[in-house]
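INFO  loader      accepted 1 record
INFO  loader      residues=657
INFO  predictor   begin
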Amino acid sequence: MDKLKMHSPNLTEGNIAKLAELFPSCVTEARDEHGKVKQAIDFDQLRQELSDHIVEGPQERYHLNWPGKRDALLAANAPIAKTLRPCREESVDFDSTKNLFIEGDNLEALKLLQESYLGKIKVIYIDPPYNTGKDFIYKDRFSDTFEDYMTKSNQRGDYGEGLVSSSEAQGKKHSNWLSMIYPRLKLARNLLRDNGVVFISIDDNEIANLERMCSEIFGEDNLLGRIIWKNATDNNPSNIAVEHEYILACCKNRQYLNPVWKSAVTDIKEVIVSKGKELNDIYKDEGALREAYKEWFKKHKSQLWPLDGYKYIDQGGVYAGIRGVHNPGKEGYRYDVLHPKTGEACVEPLMGYRFPKETMNRLLEEDRIIFGDDHNKLIELKAYAHDYKEKLSSVIELDGRSGAYDVRELFPEYKTLFENPKPVKLLQRLLSLTMEEDGDVFLDFFAGSSSSAHALMDLNKKDSKNRPFIMVQLPEPCAPSSEAYKKGLLSIDMISKERIRRVGKKLADNVRRNVNFEDYGFRVLKLDVSCFSDVYYNPGVFSQDILNQAIDNIRQDRNPEDLLFQVLLDWGVDLSLPIAQRNIAGKTVYFVDGSDKHMALAACFDLDIDEAFVKQLAEYEPLRAVFRDAGFANDSVKINVEQIFAQKSPTSEVKVI
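INFO  predictor   done
INFO  writer      dumping tokens
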């Protein structure tokens, strides 16, 4: 029996709990004055979280450490002067889609998404490069241009060709891989909703380190476990034949999760339910109906796992017998249930019945109870296939080659387009269980060939929901000798985007009745240096004559829509909101999320803005309004802008770039 504390609250414990919520990586274990292990704050780690330079700290404690960890933490927190530029020509349904495809380094992309998608992502799935000594190893730099970054990080050679890391020098070192994944997972955690979940595919090389890292980043209580994907047999000579990979599952905060994950969408369920409806339309006689389904079931039983127990049918549909009337684990209700043929009481379950007598009588009236041939068999409850919901098992058996078949079906003109893509069915199993609602946002920042986008679009079609995705993929060149390169798909991101286009076209061509899902597009955004010149960020390092020449702080190669998206990022506005372009008094105005009143943002980057135009724009009462700093006709207009909005739209926030 618990004892009363008999003392005032321990404020230190409360403070540690608050810090643990903000900085899970700073919570560790230490010994108290009596030598007992207790929860404590790693102050060196906390200092590093709050610092913009590397902090040294030799304190001994239990945690995962490796050479370069402090650099990796610094990399996660360091700001960058980058932006995302829209690319309409590579997009599909740019103005209406909610889906995003970001081309660029995923660490930089995650940094740019921090404000617009903070706490908004429901599920993240990533398939990072496994640490085999041959895969691509990311090295993170922030002071260089994008091209310099790619070259200096050994991702591209002097002529733009793709490079991989040396297996002898770097590939099998744990530290490089851990330094790559650590800052990305820290930033990804920020984007998750309170009930958000992350799935990470990994193999034996780093599963132990990854689990410890996730325990540090997400908190040990938020580790949900390992899923073992039994995919294929490894024929390489070794002590143990490796026939599996892992998917590590973590969450933002376990207390906000559904206690049990169940999915109402499975391919096998759809087959069984459809067959039941078909046979019910044909056979009106109960006996003939049962015989027809029995014959079909025998032929297809081997293909119906895990629903191969659904071997009965009546006018209500296909059903299985389950022990849903038995009380599990403790004493239940005791009463007689008479067998309809023998008239004697059926044998009782070991712990009695789950329901009271009144509920059992109702189930009997509704014909929901299954009896055996006589009273010596335990009764069962009818469970109809249309009510079936699948649980997520810790072991998933699925042929790993099916991922290649998914791609080949979309690209029949290619023999081999992408090596080892994840199967669509594997990813749908995860997504159908964790993305239950319309509007749940999905993120994959190691997109590869975009198997996850394929899986989600197909799932949206099946259950008539609209869950948008964000894909992030580095423009990593394909090998010049590859079939993809020879046929014009020069980089991984090009393969990824083309796959999403073909999936969308295939789904749009196979329209089903009563399907509301209509978003088959995606908005392409390309990571690039800021729209603003170096003078804007570091005026102190330029001489006065150069400053005088730099009248405009915007790079010459940028258009108004480029500026708009950098404003959206800076202001933390959703990048998938609809954008309308309108001409007002001869000026081009972008309205984000509406073209009437109270839209999310109104932006005008034209020059020679006068007070008459400002008054017209203020009439729309946008939540935010932005202008070009050098765009006003004179200083008087610039001074009066805020006053005009204060009079006509007092709730508007007004800024300039």
